[in-house]
Amino acid sequence: MSKFPRIRTTLSKGVILPSLIFIVGVSLLAAIFPQTTNELLNVIKNFIFVNLNWIYVWSVTIFIIFLIYLMASKYGNIRLGRNNSKPDYSFFSWISMLFAAGMGIGLMYFSVAEPIQHYSNEVFSDNTALQRAQDAQMYTFFHWGIHAWAIYAIVGLALSYFAYRYRLPLSLRSCFYPLLKDKIKGKWGNMIDVFALCSTFFGITTTLGFGVVQINSGLQTLNILPENSFIYQVLIVAVLVSLSIISAVSGLDKGVKLLSSINIIAVVVLLVFVLALGPTVYLIGSFTEGIGNYISNFFTLTFSTHSFDDKTQPWFYDWTILYWAWWISWSPYVGLFIAKISKGRTIREYIAAVLLLPTLFNFIWMSVFGNSAIWFDMNVADGALSAIASNPDALMFEFLEYLPLSSITSFLTISIIIIFFVTSADSGMFVMNSISTKNAKVSPKWQTIGWGVLLAVLALLLLNAGGLGALQSMTLITALPFSIIMLLFIVSLIKALVIDKNYYETDFSTTTVTWTGDTWKERLKQIVSFDDKKSVHEFIDTTVKDAFEELETEFAKNNIDAVINTYEGPYRLEIEIKHDLVNNFIYGVRTESKVVSDYLLSEENLPDIDDNKTFYPKAYFGDYRQGYDVHIFTKNELISDVLKHYERFLEIISEEKNEMFISSDSNHRLR
Hints:
The chain is mainly α.
């Protein structure tokens, strides 16, 4: 026996080893050489933002168009799971969790800071104060609205669809199944998961690092901590990551669900407080006007690259493009988490909820806090909030000083940020463990704890060394290739949804209409047989030819001239009745081939197939309608089928309204 007990793990070596090497390597570079690394990554980031920003603009636009199309289309009724699946969570719990994971800390950090920074930005200094206030709200809506959630929704939809509908692992590699098939189990799949894991880790690390700084600033404002220093940030991280680990280990159904529900209630309480005690009438009016302004400028904002305005281009790169890159870089993490909690929802319900409800709440939240801050800055603070626009860590708490009970609201704000911190960290641990184990159903708890410790150590290392900026740049750079990957998700979804819909809408074969039970044994033999080209030719030379010859004779008895035509390449036989004024009537049978699924080839409880290509006789018609397989027709059934189509032909040519379709000018032969 080994002296040391074997440690049980579900980690995939093909994913975890290259991911840890890259994560630790980049983090050490950013910590040891923060300035050099930051400068180098900034050069790459700036090149992408300036020269390739159109990729972000078009990608996000395509995401929105595709989601709206799906929501309104016939595919909207498809369920994320089996057809009888039920949602795992109540609607309130579902919305609370996806909202908390998606933008929690960001809403607290930027709800005052972003509108104030737009309002006070020198780029817009030529505009009036009222115009700047209106534009600040519109741009904030733009960055935190439908465009942002469309990015998350695409990844979450692809993941949940392929995981619950196709019963594949809840992993980004599964989203490529229609394109790569079983290759997703090998190196290609590992590469995709490594990319997702690194992107997720970098995004969470930088966000949590900035979140710790804001919490420290808030505690300093409340005089709970004497200063904003690294020592206190270490203590904050130790406490919060410990809480996150406890929450993550307890599972989604307990820790994350409970904290998310508590936090959404606390957020609403704070929102109502600011709305009631702030400039209420102004806030309601500005929110209403802001919605209209956003809608009326939606397409202009969506497609704008500021190419005709050199003055605003730097602002466009630093805000809009940075946001699109940031949301895209976060989408593997948020998308995986949303997919985990969305089983059982229909595609229409999923898109409507993920795209519209968080967007509406974000608009309300940003209007109440951002517009209140701008109103105070213009009417009460005499520009004091604009003066500290470059210090977003303190802006929220400085803003609360202009409202009653500022100590209580500041404490509530810190509590909300802490819970958002914990829910982001614990759901992040869950997601990273899921990626690194290829979605193992049960993993040892030490793995979840390990992700929490690694997050804390690297976040503090970078925070102390000043390397968070470099890591943020790295995160934004990875967004460019991932935006291309997300476009491929759409291709995969389209391909899979078409197959899905056809599968459930496919009715019995046309050939079964004439069936009786008289020859059921022969029919069973025909159904389970897969023919080669020679046997199909034999069927055409015997059954089909005999049927057509009997028809030719019988047509002649009724003074109708019918001819039988034979052609090669592909081999086919047809019976034709020629006309001068209307199209010829043609009913033919030709040799066709189809590729058999690899699964069918390896399935033991199905007929033996030696090759993945099989042949069958397919009916075709002179008017190019869709034909069908006739290999299980008897001679008499084939005669009956020809007469059925001939009766349809006579019915159509007898109606005057069909004249334009039956003219002899379109009497082309199928050769």
